[in-house]
Amino acid sequence: MEAITSYAEFSDVISSNEAVLLYVSSPGCSVCHALLPQVETLLEDFPSVTSVYANTGIAPDIAGQLTVFSVPAILFFIQGKEVFRVARFVPIGGLRERITSSLKMI
To answer: HSE-up of 96 (CA within 13 Å, CB side)?
Structure first.
């Protein structure tokens, strides 16, 4: 998962990729750090999804522009439009189902 450091960089990613998953965390969030490897493993089953990671300590503008109030947060975009978001408690099985159904929109 590629780290991004600004909202401008994120805008470039969603404009140049059809399906994008954004993982948002913060430096002091132990749940965020525990969940990230699980999400990365899940994404191995979805090679068409571009995944990026934003740390609110480094890139607070991303959380502000996307109104992310709670972390960990996962936002999923299809053709530049947000399709769904999940925050705080992220069940991996449910995330898999939502990604699968969202990719059918393409």
So the answer is: 9
- Report the C-alpha dihedral over residues 20, 60, 58, 27, rounded to 10 degrees: -90
C-alpha torsion angle, residues 81, 84, 90, 94 (rounded to 10): -120
Give the helix ranges, DSSP H, for 17-91: 30-43, 60-65
Number of domains composing the chain: 1
On whether the CB atoms of residues 51 and 1 are closer than 8 A, the answer is: yes
For 15, the domain range is: 2-103
Q: Give the CATH number for residue 37.
A: 3.40.30.10
Q: pLDDT tens digit string along 61-85? A: 999 999 999 999 999 999 999 999 9
Q: Pull the structure tokens for residue 60.
A: 């607070």
Q: 8-49 pLDDT, tens per residue?
A: 999 999 999 999 999 999 999 999 999 999 999 999 999 999
Task: Please say whether the beta carbons of 20 and 52 come within 8 A.
Answer: yes
